[in-house]
């Protein structure tokens, strides 16, 4: 019977699915033995009239949109041998997938989940008692949450003595495996209870089920470890993150029948032991993402029955052994993202059965063995992200093969493509990934003949010329990435991509493409055309199509006009229109973008207020509206954005006070309000932002004192040990954080920010009082700029504790007293500016500016009456002391500017008298000129001292 069932393949296509209700006349067929109504759209309750079909042997109602509760509908069908009323099917859930943007490594954090096709439940299982001839029972997806909460809930199943296969997956069972209720199932060979809430160990009593050969308990919150079950042929305990797998203990015993072991995403202790050879019949070994350590044991090469090995996403080190050719039956070798090194052994070419060779993201070196062309069955070859070098010809390497997947990206390779020889090759190729392979010249024309191509990635190369329009006509192309080349020309009016992926991906960023924006593909997921030369506006039709995307970036072009209101929808997660010439107001329809994770409209010509509708974007992490002409007060809706990490409202016309609720945004890392018209004091609540690493409030009208609680900024108290880029991967694209900030004396634009970037800039305000000594506790701070304020009193000695400081600017204040000796302790200091204060005394011993390391270092302590060792470095590169009226806070700053120009005048005059006067005196050789010259020098010295003392 089982072979008969296996050839029945019901269709799930809507065009062939039945709908409506089942005709009552069906239940008059009393002699009916076989009935398959699976994968239809009945959308009705399961009829009680099924009880009339007492001669049924086979009944399949799976995934047919039935609903309601099962009570007695099947209780009288004692002849049934096969019953399938499942109402869900399994899919892989990658919602927790992540990608480290510091190490460029993936994580395989996925889980198995089920998609429900209908809602069917059963409050007890008593209706099963009479089905004594059942051999296969499939209840996958049936809601048994109420039934399983009662004692001995599975006892009726024990009456099914002939049962061979029992499937209870995704049934919301919240108890342990009811092994005692199953004690009569002596013929049971398959038990599937995956995707429930068992939260218990695997019972050792399962060893008593002598016929049990397949055990599927994946994604069940299992506890404990694998007991010794020598009769099993297949064990799947994958996706149980708290489940301990001690392979050494497990293989201390013989597993004479074990053919398949899946322990993916469990906790494996240590390495793969040499005793794994005790499972001599092993055919499938899936152990991805288990933190396996060490090297591959030599004994694994004795498992000559192995067909598939997947050890991806572990910490396996060492070399691929040349004796790997012992695995004569191997069809799939997957070792993605480990720490393997050395060359790919040539002996691998002797495994003629090999279909999939996936070695991505290791440290493999050497060259690609030319004998790869002997693997006539090879379909997938992926060595992306290694250190493999040499010149590779696709024709010579794959000319005898019929590959489906080729990925050579991110190595040290020079890939050559002879497009004429390849015209008739690769007719079944679905993926071609040649990122950063030093491709030159035009895009090969033969690509237009690859009608099965789904993924094409030629990014980060040296390709030139126009993109052949025929690429956009490939019938199966769903993912196209040609970014970071030197491509020119225009694009077709409308771009077509298919939907073999959940959504299509188009990435043409960082080229020299021009002309109007093309119409995006239907149901586009990623539309990335940033850093090109596109002109014109974003049409309403373009906006409507982009509303179906999750990632849209058009930044760094020459787009003009307004932002179309149609661009927003509930699926859009990332929108970047920055660095264009867009005008008008921000559309109020942003309230429809309730899934937004990142919004960047910076550096445009936008005006008006920020629409309140953005408060609907509760998931927003990054909001960048800088360098526009937006006005109004600080947007009040921002208080609702509790996930916000980056907030940049700089270089606009905002006014009023900074609200105290800013301190409630506990995830905030970057806050830039520079160059606005904010007034009032700095709210002390801002110091409660424990994750804050950059605070820029410069060029405003802020007054009052610097909050003494500034030491509460926990993130700035130490330097992070590891470097991590800020941003998120959304729809396979990186959404980075950009920022402009004065650091080391000059305005710098950061295209990418990481957690090591840190700074506080409160310059060009009207702050007064003393610098709080608590600021010295911010030992991780790299940039501190308090210049152009009214700060007074002494520089606190605690500043010397800020060992992470690279740039320190206290210029244009009213600081007095000596320069603290403690400044000499800041070894990282590259820029120091204390000019235009009332400092006195000597330059501290050890503050020799030639000890400040790095190119472009500078120290500037001019306009201070200091004596002692003069600076040995020039003032080139020192922070700007511009007297632009827009940067002057009040009359005091204007007075400072006057004094500065007077100082420069005195210096010029002194230079003229000192150098040219001496020159002419020596030239004339007259004694009376000598006396006059030195009297002038004395007078000039008195003038200079008088000017200095006035400060």
Explain this structure:
With 951 residues, this protein is mostly beta strands. The protein has a domain at 17-87 and 119-223: Ribonuclease Inhibitor (Leucine-rich repeat, LRR (right-handed beta-alpha superhelix), Alpha-Beta Horseshoe), CATH 3.80.10. Helix content is 8%, strand content 25%. It has six helices and 66 strands. The strands form ten sheets. The chain has a 32-stranded parallel β-sheet, with no helix packed on it. The protein has a 17-stranded parallel β-sheet. Belongs to the RLP family. The chain crosses the membrane at residues 901-922. Pfam families: LRR_1, LRR_8. It is found in: Cell membrane.
Fold topology:
Elements: H1 2-6, E1 34-36, E2 58-60, E3 67-69, E4 82-84, E5 88-93, E6 98-100, E7 105-107, E8 111-116, E9 119-121, E10 136-138, E11 165-167, E12 190-192, E13 214-216, E14 234-236, E15 244-245, H2 247-250, E16 260-262, E17 267-268, E18 284-286, E19 308-310, E20 317-319, E21 332-334, E22 339-342, E23 356-358, E24 363-364, E25 380-382, E26 389-393, H3 394-398, E27 405-407, E28 412-416, E29 431-433, E30 440-441, E31 455-457, E32 462-466, E33 479-481, E34 486-489, E35 504-507, E36 512-516, E37 524-528, E38 533-536, H4 540-546, E39 551-553, E40 558-561, E41 574-576, E42 581-585, E43 598-600, E44 605-608, E45 622-624, E46 629-633, E47 646-648, E48 653-657, E49 670-672, E50 677-681, E51 694-696, E52 701-704, E53 727-730, E54 733-736, E55 739-743, E56 746-750, E57 759-761, E58 766-770, E59 783-785, E60 790-794, E61 807-809, E62 814-817, E63 831-833, E64 838-842, E65 858-860, E66 865-867, H5 891-924, H6 927-950
Parallel strand pairs: 1-2, 2-4, 3-9, 4-10, 10-11, 11-12, 12-13, 13-14, 14-16, 15-17, 16-18, 18-19, 19-21, 20-22, 21-23, 22-24, 23-25, 25-27, 26-28, 27-29, 29-31, 30-32, 31-33, 32-34, 33-35, 34-36, 35-37, 36-38, 37-39, 38-40, 39-41, 40-42, 41-43, 42-44, 43-45, 44-46, 45-47, 46-48, 47-49, 48-50, ...
Antiparallel strand pairs: 5-8, 6-7, 53-54, 55-56
Helix pairs in contact: 5-6
